[in-house]
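re: ur question from the group chat, yeah i did fold both. here u go
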Amino acid sequence: MLTNKSKINTGLRLLILLLLSGLIPLILTGCVEKELINDPTTGSILPTKNSESLMDGQYSAATKYYDARGYAQQLNILIKNGVITRVNLKEIDKNKADRLTVEGSDKTWANLAVANLGSLYLRLYNELMLSQNPDEIDAISGATQTSERYVKLSVAILNNATKGDHEPIKIDTLDTYSITSAADHDGYQGLLQASFNGSTLVSLNYDEIITEDGKSKRKSTDPSTSTEFNALFDTITETAITSQSLESPFPANEPSPEKAKYGECLRLLREARAPF
């Protein structure tokens, strides 16, 4: 026979069970779920403000050129029920290898908010999946180029998704390359720095230096020599910007060591600046 105290305890247990049975579905399908766009546990897809403007399908965008590190970025986004449901970013080198599979030290970081390249990608994916808005993605210090290109590719894709245009697209980027030639018999190396806005060459600077002691032909201690080299280097780089050509203006057997090294730097720049 149950005592009064036992009856009270049994009643409390029943009350708790009833409350839990009512709260669990609420947690799973109610207020908590409404804070999520795509619940990684349940796989739920919930409507957002974009759901009426984004048309379903697979969309792709990539950068037009390989960057100074030797990678092009390609982003694929799947939209279902007007919601971004799957995201995949690849950085691809000239051998068509995925950066994640390439050996090297540029995929782990000791002092960043993310520990490695895989974690960086996952964070970018989650921010876009949850916010559904590229403008709400924060660039990660130390990995700003990858972050910013991910945002720019996302914006381009969503612009296409509003029109239902599934054609893969290429986007313009800002790129700066530093090219160094082999040293001549005096130890001077050609140093070419080029900046592009999309397909447009916007700045080009050339000098010849000795890396070990920092000597520069543009900054020669002999005023007449410095003037001569500054005039030559300014003329050849201005010609390239005006013509928008990365081809050497000098013959292959050019006897001038400065002109020959400049031509070699342009060749290396063309290789680095290859279209994707």
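okk and heres the other one u asked abt
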Amino acid sequence: MLCYFAWLMVFLVVSVRAGTITGTVRAEGKAAVTGEAGGGAYDSRKFKFAERVNYAELRDFVVHLVGPVGTNTTPTAARVQVISTKKVAQRGAMFSPHVLPIVVGTTVEWPNYDEILHNVFSMSDSNPFDLDLYKAPEVRRWTFDKPGRVDVFCSIHTAMSCVVLVLENPYYAAADEKGRYLIANVPAGKYQLKAWHERLPAQVQEIIVPENGEVKADFTLGIKGLPKL
């Protein structure tokens, strides 16, 4: 009984000393030079149907704390454990979701709901794997034991690609359709907060999470901060 109350007190103290991070994340492109955005060659048969990036419609943003927050400092390989199971479905020769943020040690299931063969694989440096050929109703799994971006493909179908973003801590959120995100129960302290998108440079802000309440951090990602000629 004493042990139970001691555990309860620790839980309540940690809960009280935790804050929330909220905000929005969006993308913007470079301002088009007058006369170059339309007309001329852009209206030619050669380029008329070339699909352009609509930055206002970009989705799949992920916001997360940087580093092994709330974990020990031993090497990743020594502290890996299976924490939970997530799923990426193969349906209609597409992966869903397209972006899956997880914490190190998570096992991901890759069910194939199609009546055709798929071959899920990645040649990423951090988590290379090959699930080989299989089709419905088989489900295969892979545990991601190192942090990093993992680009995943099907060896058969060109349109099948997704990203598994393996993070060092559980304090992350995928932004919703309006670009809003919320990360709850974050221990009070100073952190580096990163906003990520698969085709844009990431952006980092330094934040201070209060012991109670919330801190707001908004991001606008774009092609900026990169070396230029």
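fwiw on the second one: The two ends are 68 Å apart (CA to CA). Confidence is low (pLDDT under 50) at residues 1-14, 71-82. idk if thats what u expected
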